[in-house]
Target: Polyphosphate kinase 2 family protein
Amino acid sequence: MKDEIKQYFATPGKKISLKDYSTSYKGELVKDDGKDLLEEIKGQLSKFQETLYAANSHSILIIFQAMDAAGKDSAIEHVMSGLNPQGCQVYSFKTPNSEEYEHDFLWRHYKALPERGRVGIHNRSHYENVLVCKVHPEYVLKENIPGYSDVKQIDKKFWKQRYESIRNFEKHISANGTVVIKIFLYVSKQEQKERFLDRIDDPAKNWKFSSADIAERQLWDDYMKAYEQTIEETSTDECPWYIVPADQKWYSRLAISKILSDAFEKLDLKFPVLVEEEGKKLEEIKQQLLKE
Model:
């Protein structure tokens, strides 16, 4: 499946057109085989996580971005279920609160970064500031940025600076040991429609649906343009984007798990080796315990 993962990779510096990517690709696998493979990879992730914690040199930050009903929540639930919850932290970012609006747009996201040895998952992220805010530039005015008191002032220069801020932010944390994995769950408009209808028809899923989701759906093309430009501007060698097909949930979960597994493998982390003196102390303690 490693070769398949390459097709989701958003090559840094390359023009991005989402039409070049599939929302429904599932390879030659059938669903049952895909589920079995997912369980196998989840077992590998558990071992990788233990090494990550022991080495205490890196952290993993997984960013999920998508349109509504693309499957972010279920992907987090299924893929991360194989990890030790003591070594994970999940943040689901909502509209900034009054305190967060008193700081720059990256402040609350920097606070939520995982510590060394841990896996952090951001369900939506700092990218909302170049996605939702790009489609709704009036939201930027709430940040009270000097020189921006009118939507007309939020021009190409503003967005260029914001993309640059994001690249610099990710470059900095990457250089300091955080591996950033950015996943765009790419769902089709038709599949979103089917999932919305399912949420409406199923009383147990009604809570997942909001009338605001329909309003945002009407801006689908605007969002696709925002995603294309965002991915194009911020997919870098250190922190690349992956555009994962999301029409088949079982396959998207499998693809995400493989992307994560590959990232762990590249780190090539090892368990710490005790210095000779510490090893002798352990042997002495062992002998003491055996004599009890």
Observations:
- Strands lie at 9-10, 59-66, 88-92, 119-123, 178-186, 241-245.
- The chain has one domain: 2-291.
- Residues 2-291 form a domain with the Rossmann fold fold (CATH 3.40.50.300).
